[in-house]
């Protein structure tokens, strides 16, 4: 590429991005990295060390940048604005990923299947489909995850922590998405439109419920940007997107195992692995 460097060590490290060479390997799980600094940060996920504490709440983090990202949840500041539309973001990286939705740029390619993605995060989540690697384990229930962010989100189930607070009322939420949906009730904002019938909804959840009941009149009205598949129901594309991202939002109350679909048949089948309490015992 056209990049230039003042130090030889810098160009050697940069060249590894092109070659894919990963010289630094974790002794615990075998995961490898291009830079030793990335390996050092990864090792903290095994030790459980969380030296970076938030001054506004009791949450602590393994990485300093994770703390920086978290601290913005306590403020409503969104300094990074898109020049193409009215959207604003708390982080520059989120803005850059969003801008690619306007340009159609997909610079990140999977070496296994050739699929293209708009941002590196989507590619990393997709690659887990091929490798099946899940190095991050919950100490409470043993569930494993592909990313430390997924583990952190999952751990809130055990702690009951709700760090995302509404500025309009006293409600707090475990997930940022839940807060976003809730805040629209205060503003009356309606952004979700069914392309089949034109009806407007205040949340994506309500639109999804609508799509369960109504077949869109528009032919092939839901298209996946990741694999170009088309669907008649938004529910179908929602499930498809979870295949790409690895999302499992519906969890078992007993063991916190996640499922892509809120299907009573699937979850009930899973519940059979848990022993049922037998209250009527024989005393003889």
From TrEMBL:
Family annotation (PROSITE patterns): ZINC_FINGER_C2H2_1, ZINC_FINGER_C2H2_2
GO BP term (any one): regulation of transcription by RNA polymerase II
Molecular functions (GO terms): DNA-binding transcription factor activity; RNA polymerase II cis-regulatory region sequence-specific DNA binding; zinc ion binding
Main localization category: nucleus
Keyword annotations of the record: DNA-binding, Metal-binding, Nucleus, Repeat, Zinc, Zinc-finger
InterPro entries documented for this protein: Znf_C2H2_sf (IPR036236), Znf_C2H2_type (IPR013087)
Compartments in which it is found: Nucleus
Cross-referenced SUPFAM superfamilies: beta-beta-alpha zinc fingers (SSF57667)
Record GO cellular component, one term: nucleus
Superkingdom of origin: Eukaryota
Ranges of residues in domain C2H2-type: 1-23, 24-51, 52-79, 80-107, 108-135, 136-163, 164-191, 192-220, 222-249, 250-279
Protein name: C2H2-type domain-containing protein
Species the sequence originates in: Otolemur garnettii
Taxonomic placement: Eukaryota, Metazoa, Chordata, Craniata, Vertebrata
